[in-house]
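Archive entry. Fields below.
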Amino acid sequence: MKSDESEGKIQILTEINKLIHEPARLMIISLLYVIENADFVWIKGQTGLTDGNLSSHLSKLESAGYVIVEKSIKNKKTNTLLKLSEGGRKAFEEYRKKLTQILGSTDN
Amino acid sequence: MNEQIDLRELEKRAWRSAFQDGIWDIFLGWLFLGLAIAPFVDVFGLPAEIGSMIIVLCWNTIAVLFLILSKKFITIPRMGFVKFGAKRKKLKKRLLAFLIFNVILAFLLLFINISGFFKALNIGGLTEPLVIGLLLITVPLSILAYFLEFHRLYVYAIFFGLGFFNSELLYPLVGSPLDLFLSQGSVGIAIISIGLVYFVQFLRKYSSSQK
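PREDICTED_STRUCTURE:
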């Protein structure tokens, strides 16, 4: 009986949002979840990712509709403002719920 | 990996990062130094009280300008821009309400003091500057430190609050206004120095870049 339950739980792993599950993207989404918005430089400083790496992850998150990217020109430089979309917020909450379901009750 | 992703802690850490540039420290130290320097400056032969008030006002304007401009032109280009969520907005509103209350309270206490109420209570000697300093400076600044989660401010609040008391202790030895300069000016200089250390560390950590 218990083994059936465990099997059921382990299968939820396949339902985990792989786009969010990637560590760098999880860092980005976690940060954007706790704030209203931030620019590229702030997210880069907090995550420690390189420009290229961060850009690449942001493109994926933007394509999925999780992150809203607004570009503007400030003092002749491009300013990239990032915000978690409503869909991204819901997806992250769902991800957290799933992960808690799977790992939350483990004793070891 | 034993550590959980604590979102609340993540938000707090992000918030506190705003104080790692040392600019708030320099700003506060500068304000306090102004109080110590004001009695030494002669403003066009005006009476000392009015002259001091003009100096403090000009000094504080420089401090506020320094805070705004350095955040805009030094911190944000290096560290980036961040806008916090609804919880912080609520806290900011509470903080503003508290500051307004504090200003009203300070005026009220000043009025009571002028009316001679404290003299009637016969709180004399060293107790008066100690009580005034702790009540009017340490307590409000500690509440400010709590709201801002700016932990160094708790220590500054104690030193600021003890300024008047220390000045009273020094008065028999060095006289006025050197007592004020030594007691409050030294605290101001110490806080500016701490701020400068943080500022240099910040500049080393964040090079100027913008995307």
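CURATOR_NOTE: The mean pLDDT of chain B is 84.
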